[in-house]
């Protein structure tokens, strides 16, 4: 197997994992904003886990069909799922902190 097949497999997995992670993040944020209780948030968390595991299992099932290296593809997908989720969570945390700071400043400001 050539080096390019490893690189392309890793990139394909990375892009696929990142795309799934972005979709899951959007669903999670939508549900968190509408959630009335913690059960809804826990349900979404469980769904995230199942979808992520299903993606990795699908890549495993397609290992003999993929024109890329299976190992590079599955590592890229796992990295895409994890890294994208961490980055999106950090961005959301910063956004929330900024919004709370603006609310605090507007509440402290005399009218």
Estimate what percentage of residues fall within beta strands.
under 5%
Number of helices: 3
Sheet having the most strands: none
Mean pLDDT: 90
First and last CA, distance:
70 Å
Give the % helix. Answer: over 70%
What general form does the structure show? Answer: elongated
Secondary-structure-derived class: mainly alpha
Beta strands, count: 0
Order of helices and strands: HHH
Low-confidence stretches: none
Q: What does the radius of gyration come to? A: 19 Å
Protein topology:
Layout: H1 3-34, H2 38-61, H3 70-108
Task: Briefly summarize what is shown.
By secondary structure, the protein is mainly α. Helices cover 86% and strands 0% of the residues.
Describe this protein's structure.
With 111 residues, the protein is mainly α. Helix content is 86%, strand content 0%. The mean pLDDT is 90.
Attribute tags:
111 residues; mainly alpha; 86% helix; 0% strand; elongated
